[in-house]
Amino acid sequence: MPRIIGIDIPSKKRLAVSLTYIYGVGPKRSQEIIDKLGLNPDMPAAHLSDAEVSRINALLQSEYMVEGDLRRDVQNNIKRLMSINCYRGQRHRVNLPARGQRTRTNARTRKGRKKTVANKKK
């Protein structure tokens, strides 16, 4: 199982798919990384040599914000919204949807104690 930036990627899946297990790397960015390094996207990740793994590590650390740095940046953005007391920050503070979704039904985003929803009477 190859380890890239502290994450074990699945070894039996295609390289293009297994790179998406890294936080911040989606299908498009995965393909971009593979193209830059000239790797075969269809080979299993288990066939990566140590040199190729180190090249992927170096590229991800130098050019992209992934894993811990990206998570920290997202959390800092949310904290900033909460500190300036904007609408989105207020919604984050009370754990409600922040992007205009309805809350009368289907808002199951709250954390904490579960409230049971009554069944519909016949």
Question: What's this, in brief?
Answer:
By secondary structure, this protein is mainly alpha-helical.
The strand count comes to 2
Q: How many whole angstroms does the radius of gyration measure? A: 20 Å
Alpha carbon gap, first and last residue: 54 Å
H/I helix tally: 5
Query: Which strand order do you get reading across the main beta sheet?
Result: 1-2
CATH topology of the domain at 3-67: Helicase, Ruva Protein, domain 3
What's the helix-strand series?
A: EEHHHHH
The helix/strand class is mainly alpha
How large a portion of the residues is in β-strands, by DSSP E? under 5%
Under the CATH scheme, which class of the domain at 3-67? Mainly Alpha
At CATH level 2, the architecture of the domain at 3-67 is Orthogonal Bundle
Low-confidence stretches: none
User: Percent range for helical residues?
Assistant: 40-55%
Please describe the biggest sheet, giving its number of strands, its sense, and whether it closes into a barrel.
Answer: 2 strands, antiparallel
Descriptive notes:
The protein is mainly alpha-helical and 122 residues long. Helices cover 43% and strands 3% of the residues. The chain has a two-stranded antiparallel sheet. β1 and β2 form a beta hairpin. α4 crosses α5. It is elongated and about 60 Å long.
Secondary structure topology:
Elements: E1 3-4, E2 7-8, H1 15-18, H2 27-37, H3 50-63, H4 67-83, H5 87-93
Antiparallel strand pairs: 1-2
Helix pairs in contact: 4-5
